[in-house]
Each structure stands twice: as C-alpha cells, then as structure tokens.
Amino acid sequence: MGSGVNSPSGDLKANIDDATEFHLETFRGDPNIKNVKRLPDVTINGVLLSHIQWEKETSWDSEYITVTTDLQSVITIGWGFTKSDLDRKGSQDLIDPVMETFELL
C-alpha cells in the first residue's frame, strides 16, 4: 500500500518514524487490538524498515514499514496468522525467511 509522504526534509529515517508513529497511534486506538509494540528496526537487502506487532483475539499481526527512496510513498507489508494455527514465535518463523527476499525496486 502506498500513500503520499510529501516530506521536504529529505530524511528517510524521520519519514519512516513518522509513518510508524501514525500506524502505532491507529492500532492503539482500536479497542479490538492489544499488545501493540514497535520492535527494533531491521535492514533487509539495504532497505530500512520499522516493525510493529500487535494481536487481536484470534490473530497475531505484524507490519513492516518503509518509505520509497524518492520519499513519495510509504510501503507497508502486513502479516496476519490465526492464533489457533501457531504461536507468536511460529508466526515470526514464517515471516522472517519471506521478508529476507524483500527488495525495494
């Protein structure tokens, strides 16, 4: 999903942080979502991404957020797994090898 960033600062990290804070506020404001937290940022194939996790009654959810190099769009990659199928660690074990293939073209 892409949305306009329109940042004159030219600061990629600041734009990622701003987008992440917006998502965190949104998730924390939803009464159906709990345990919202920002995990340490990751760099995958040279691309800096923030990482958010939360849970709903029946699912484990994660989102990775970055900004295109032209600072025009926010890219989000969302993941959701049913709790009855696996635990949080199991969901992350499935996410990690796929995220390692991420490339920002």
Biggest β-sheet: strands ordered side by side in the sheet: 1-2-3-4
Give the biggest sheet.
Answer: 4 strands, antiparallel
Tell me the fraction of residues in β-strands, as a range. Answer: 35-45%
Unreliable stretches covering 5 or more consecutive residues? none
Secondary-structure element string? HEEEEH
- Overall geometry comes to flat
Span of the ends, CA to CA: 14 Å
Please tell me how large the radius of gyration is: 14 Å
Average residue pLDDT: 91
Helix content: 25-40%
Number of strands: 4
- Count of helical stretches: 2
Structural class designation: alpha+beta
Structure explained in plain terms:
This protein is of the alpha+beta class and 105 residues long. 28% of the residues lie in helices and 36% in strands. A 4-stranded antiparallel beta sheet has the order 1-2-3-4, sandwiched between helices. A hairpin with a 3-residue loop joins strand 2 (47-55) and strand 3 (59-67). The model has no long low-confidence stretch (mean pLDDT 91).
List the SSEs and their pairings.
Blueprint: H1 12-28, E1 34-44, E2 47-55, E3 59-67, E4 74-82, H2 88-99
Antiparallel strand pairs: 1-2, 2-3, 3-4
